[in-house]
Write a structure and sequence with these properties.
Radius of gyration: 17 Å
Order of helices and strands: HHEHEHHEEHEEHHEE
Number of domains: 1
Shape: globular
Distance between the termini: 41 Å
CATH superfamily: NAD(P)-binding Rossmann-like Domain
Structural class: alpha/beta
Number of helices: 8
Helix content: 25-40%
Largest sheet: 8 strands, mixed
CATH class: Alpha Beta
CATH architecture: 3-Layer(aba) Sandwich
CATH topology: Rossmann fold
Strand content: 15-25%
Length: 226
C-alpha cells in the first residue's frame, strides 16, 4: 500500500460546504463502501466517492492496467502494468488524504469483508450473480451499473422493491450483449454512468425514493426509469 502523501490540513466544513445540503455527512460517515471492479465505471465511482468524503473504500479487482484502459478508463500512462486497485487507490489518496483504502488485488470471494454499501461494476452476468448471492443479506445498498457503448443501466437494490426486481436482471449469459461490455467504451459514458450511480446513492443517503432501474441512451438522449 502506498504511503499517504502529506498535505496541509483542511477544514472539513469548508471542504464539503457546497455539497452539505445534498450529501448528508452523518449518513455518509457511517458507510463502509466496497467497489467490485475498477475498470471504466468502477474507477470513476471510486474517484467521485473519494471527492465526496466517503470515509472508507474497499477496491476489489484482479486485473492490471493495459494500453486499452488509458483512453476508455482514465488510467495514467505511468499506471501501465500496475494492478488497477493500486492505481485507483493511489489516485483516490491524492484526492482525499484522510480516506481509508483497502486494495484487494483478487477476484471477488463470498467471504470478503465488504461493509454495508457495495457498488458492482463488473462485465459478466455470472459474476454479478455470484456477488449478489454473496452480499444480498449483508449490505444496505447494492447498486449494479452496466454499460454497453453509449447505453447505461443503473440497477439499485436498496429496498424491498429493488431487491425483488434485481434478480430478474441476472439473465442467462447467452442472452447478454454479444461481447464484453468493455469492447465499446468511452470515458465520457463511464463518467456519466458513475454520476448516475452516485446520484442514486445520494438519494438513499437523503432518505429519498431510489429508482430500482434507471436507463440512459446517450446517443438518442433517452432516459427510462422503472
Amino acid at each position: 500500500m502506498a504511503e499517504t502523501p502529506q498535505a496541509p490540513q483542511i477544514d472539513p466544513a469548508l471542504r464539503y460546504s457546497r455539497q452539505k445540503d445534498l450529501v448528508p455527512a452523518d449518513r455518509l460517515a457511517a458507510c463502509r463502501v466496497a467497489i467490485v471492479g475498477v475498470g471504466a465505471i468502477g474507477r470513476q465511482i471510486a474517484l467521485q466517492l473519494a471527492a465526496m468524503g466517503a470515509p472508507s473504500l474497499t477496491l476489489v479487482d484482479f486485473d492490471t492496467v493495459d494500453a486499452s484502459n488509458l483512453a476508455s478508463q482514465g488510467y495514467l500512462q505511468d499506471d501501465l502494468g500496475r494492478p488497477k486497485v493500486q492505481a485507483t487507490g493511489d489516485m483516490c489518496r491524492l484526492i482525499n488524504h484522510s480516506l481509508e483504502i483497502i486494495e484487494v488485488n483478487d477476484r471477488f470471494k463470498r467471504n470478503m469483508q465488504i461493509g454495508n454499501v457495495l457498488f458492482c461494476a463488473v462485465d459478466s452476468i455470472a459474476t454479478r450473480q455470484l456477488i449478489w448471492d454473496g452480499v444480498k443479506d449483508r449490505v444496505s445498498v447494492f447498486i449494479d451499473t452496466r454499460m454497453s457503448a453509449e447505453v447505461v443501466r443503473v440497477l439499485a437494490a436498496v429496498d424491498a422493491e429493488g431487491r425483488k426486481r434485481y434478480p430478474a436482471t441476472l439473465f442467462a449469459a447467452q442472452e447478454a450483449y454479444a461481447g464484453s461490455c468493455t469492447a465499446k467504451s468511452t470515458i465520457y459514458t463511464a463518467n456519466i454512468a458513475a454520476g448516475l450511480t452516485i446520484g442514486q446513492f445520494t438519494k438513499w443517503l437523503r432518505n429519498l425514493p431510489v429508482d430500482p432501474d434507471l436507463g440512459l441512451n446517450i446517443l438518442t438522449a433517452e432516459m427510462t426509469v422503472a
